[in-house]
Amino acid sequence: MARRKLIAGNWKMNCLKADGVALAKAVASRYKAAGQPRYDMLMCPPFVLIPAIVEAAAGSGVAVGAQDCHAQEKGAHTGDTSAWMLKDAGCGYVIVGHSERRTNHAETDEIVKAKAAAGLAAGLKVIICIGETLAERDAGQTLDVNRRQLHGSLPDAATPANTVIAYEPVWAIGTGRTASPEQAQEVHAMIRAELTGRYGAAAAQEYRILYGGSMNAKNAAELLAQTDIDGGLIGGAALKVDDFMAVGEGSPK
Ligand code: PGA
Fold first, then answer.
1. For atom 7 of ligand 1, which residue has the closest CA?
2. CA terminus-to-terminus distance, the chain
3. Is 70 one of the catalytic residues?
4. Gap between the Cα atoms of 130 and 73, Å rounded
5. With the C-alpha atoms ordered 91, 95, 96, 102, is the resulting torsion angle positive or negative?
6. Residue 76 CA to ligand 1 centre (angstroms)
7. Which residues are substrate-binding (predicted)?
């Protein structure tokens, strides 16, 4: 069975409420008007906007997710938000292990794995991000780094139905410098091969593997046409309705 593409918007720390709600309503109505599109759509706003965005997207089929969660269910963790709270607020997904979290908050694979496990335990789908830095790529370590992050971050309860992998080369995030379709496909194929080793060929074929890093309306179709690229995790281009919708609408059949 063909994997259904997932077009996911990572809003990062952008949008006040009025702008976020307007963006979400526009995405929701365009997605709904398209009937039963052949791709899934997801918006991941900042925590504080989640309830408003859940309301704005209600009934459209566009899912809402968060950009991070804590590994514990509750307790003395000032400033943190648990996966159970996200589920309670109407989220269907949570992103974990984004490179900005790994770098700015010193998140290790072990922490990412614990957060992913919490997301699954709370009933969310998780998007686990991995990716090499430019220095690692230049040193010829791309496949090794991604392999290590993949296995280090995947929780035991992962299945193709509840877990999505996002390959995001750090040097391509927010830089306007996209991985070429061939560069991305090489890593995606390695990820699928590793998933095959871990879960068997049938399950590995069902896992969705997203590409992220300066994906936009212009370069998306070529990336999404690659054998093992099953969608996008989109930052900057997800903040403009036309650009975000164009990624999905232009995706190969
Ligand atoms: P970008 O961000 O599309 O702005 O490069 C992608 C991401 O970090 O998820």
1. 235
2. 13
3. no
4. 24
5. negative
6. 31
7. 10-12, 174, 214, 235-236
Q: Which residues have any ligand 1 atom within 6 Å of their CB?
A: 10, 168, 173-174, 212-215, 233-237
DSSP state of 38: S
Distance CA 79, CA 97 (A): 18
Q: Which atom of ligand 1 is nearest to the CA of 174?
A: 5
Closest residue by Cα to residue 9 from 58, 59, 53: 53
What distance lies between CA 246 and its chain's CA centroid? 18
Summarised one tens digit per residue, pLDDT across range 77-119 is 999 999 999 999 999 999 999 999 999 999 999 999 999 999 9
Task: Please tell me what DSSP assigns to residue 236.
Answer: G
Domain that holds residue 210: 5-31+39-249
Mean pLDDT, residues 177-189: 96
Number of domains forming the structure of the chain: 1
What three-state secondary structure class fits 84?
Answer: helix
**How big, in percent rounded to 5, are the helix, strand and coil portions of the chain?**
45, 15, 40
Q: Which amino acid is present at 239?
A: L
Average pLDDT over residues 228-234: 98
Q: How does pLDDT run across 47-75, given as a tens digit for each residue?
A: 999 999 999 999 999 999 999 999 999 99
CATH number of the domain where residue 181 is located: 3.20.20.70
Is the pLDDT reported for residue 174 higher than 80?
yes
